[in-house]
Amino acid sequence: MRITPAHAVLGAALVLGAAGCGGSESTGTSSGKGAITVEATDTECKVSRTQAPAGAVEFTVTNKGSKVNEFYIYGEGGRVMGEVENITPGLSRSFTVELTEPGTYQTACKPGMKGDGIRADFTVTGSGTATGAASSDEKLAAAVTAYEKYVAHEADELLEHTTEFTAAVKAGDVAKAKSLYADARGPWEEIEPVAESFGDLDPKIDGREDVVAEGMTFTGYHRLEKDLWKDGLQKDSGAVADQLLADVKQVVAKAKTVELNPLQIANGSKALLDEMATGKVTGEEERYSHTDLYDFDANYEGCKQAIAALRPALEERDPALLKAIDARFAELDEALDAHKAGEGFKAYTALSKDDVKALTVALDAVSEQVAKVPGVVAA
Question: Which domains can be identified in the chain, with CATH numbers?
Fold first, then answer.
């Protein structure tokens, strides 16, 4: 999919987890200044300060372990307020999250990008008055308004297409269900940062078979994907389809009322690129249907919607960065378009190693530029 006038945005940052294994260590409180540093290893998550005043809070996360790591900020009800993914060993990544409501949050590192995460409480103090990127800037306020309209539109699309897909599964029409699968997942992938942010609904809806090793039941889209492409429809496939639709309805209701801020839009644009890098371009997401390029395209569309929403503000604040992003978008467009097949895309298994490398190089170039957007928004 390419950007159209009806699609004006994207944004927030997410994934999720449950209560933590291990614990975070702190060395200070809200009295410190500058970025809060996080030292992530395979067994620890050391956060330098565990308090901050309400507003824009910056974290700098350094991976000193041997596994790829992630870092999250969780709010009430397990909602992901901000995150940074794909932190390879030795790498440091910074991001800023707007925490406008005082109260108790949680920080979490996720070594190996699996499991519950290493968690600890994080306190936000003050009056709860929005500052920084969530201020009265008219262009940023307009971006949020446009984003929320976009999310509502895609949420409706998600419900419509998932209803059609699950109906085909329940009717035992394998051919039709297969033909509807990628379309059902498309809206989810476009607004993935928001869709994934609501408690334990994400692993129920979008978890791959790996969730079994983490003590969860394998359900949702990927369970039905396996039934359709590998095992054949099972006795409980209809029940799985019913549960998927019920869970999607919950996500849709929540997504259409969610309140976000400009930093979540900016962080979400990069989070979507991280999703593409860690799951889609590798062929790990759709391991049975091999429809990974559809997901790749939908995540990419979501990223471009975030930049579209923020474009007026970026044109004013850093036009050179916007020009660089547009140039990198054009390069990734060309690399992805080479794998179109009719109205869709080739199967991931049809790609050569050189094809995957070309997509990865173009994706990395986009990521390098988009990673700068949150800093511009927060300035």
Answer: 24-129 (2.60.40.420), 138-378 (1.20.1420.20)
